[in-house]
Amino acid sequence: MIQMNTQSQASPATFSINPATRIGHVSLNVADLERQLAFYQEILGLTVHWREGGRAGLGVGPSTSSGLRLRTGPQDVLRLTENPGFRRYRGTTGLYHFAVLLPDRHALAVAIGRLFSLHYRNYPTDHILTKTTYLDDPEGNGIELYTESPEDGAWTITDGEYITRRADGSLSDGREPLDLDALFTHLSEGESLEALMPSETRIGHVHLHVGDLDRAVDFYHGVLGFDVMGVARPFRMGFVSAGGYHHHIGLNTWQGEGAPPPPADALGLRDFSVELPEQDALEEVQARIAQAEIPANQTADGLLVHDPFQNGVMLTARSG
Fold this sequence. Notes:
It is a single chain. The chain is of the alpha+beta class and 320 residues long. Helices cover 16% and strands 36% of the residues. The protein is built from 5 helices and 20 strands. The strands form 3 sheets. The protein has a 9-stranded mixed β-sheet with strand order 12-6-7-8-5-13-16-15-14, covered by helices on one side. The two termini are 30 Å apart. The model is unreliable at 1-11 and 65-72 (pLDDT under 50).
C-alpha cells in the first residue's frame, strides 16, 4: 500500500482529479530528428505513427508511410520536434525521465535483452513494487522502462520517510540490482529480441526536476487536483497521482533548490500530456486553472499550461 504523506507544507486541496486520469504522451525538443527516430525505433522498438516536416509522433501499433498524422489511430507515446540549434543545459528544471510502462515481465525481458544485445548502456533496477531499467537517449533524455510487480512488495512514504518492504515484510532500499537471470526466464529459448513494443505499452509516469517541492505540490495537487502520495524531504522528492496509483508525476529538487527553468533554446521536455477520461473532467480542471489565474493556451492538441518551473503540461480528454 502507498500511503499519503501528511507532513507536506503545501496547501491541501478539497478535491481530486478524476481517478481515471493518466499520462498520455511526452513531447521533446530534439536537435537531430533522424538520429532520434532511429534510436526510438531500433533500440526501443517504437513505431513512427506520423511525420510532418521536423515533427514526428511515435508509439505502438501500425505505422504510416504516407507522412500523414494518424488523428484517429493509435495513441502516440512520444512526440519529437526538431530544433537543430538547441542545446543541452545542466542545473535547470525540466525532465528527469519519462517512464514507459510495459504490460508484464516478459515484455520487460525482451526490452532489456534487446538493450544488452545491442550493447546499449542501461541500469536494471528492482524497486520491489516495479521492475525497471534506466537509460538515456542519444541526446541525454532520461528514460525508464518498467513493469508493475506489486506481488513482490510495496513502498510507503510515512512522516516524510521513504520505506520499501518486500512481500515477506523484510526491508529493502528500493534500489536493488534487478535479478536478470530470473527476468530472462520469461523468454523462450531462441526468442527474437527484435519485436516491437506490445500494443498495451504506454507512458506510466513522468519524473520532473523542479525548484521547490512545496510550490510543485501546490500546483499539481492544489490546482490540477492530483493526490499527494508522499513527500520525502530527506530524498528531496515527492509523488502525486490519480486514482491511487503509486505515481503519475514524480517531483525532485536534485538540480538544486531554486534551480532555474531551462533557456528557450534548451533540448529536452517540451510538454507532457495529462489525459482526463471525459470532457466534463477536463473542464473541471480548466476551471480550477482559470480560478488560479494561471496562463493557459488552447492549442490543437489541448490546453497548454506550465508549472511554476516552466514544465509544460498539455491537458486533454481521451477520445476513446
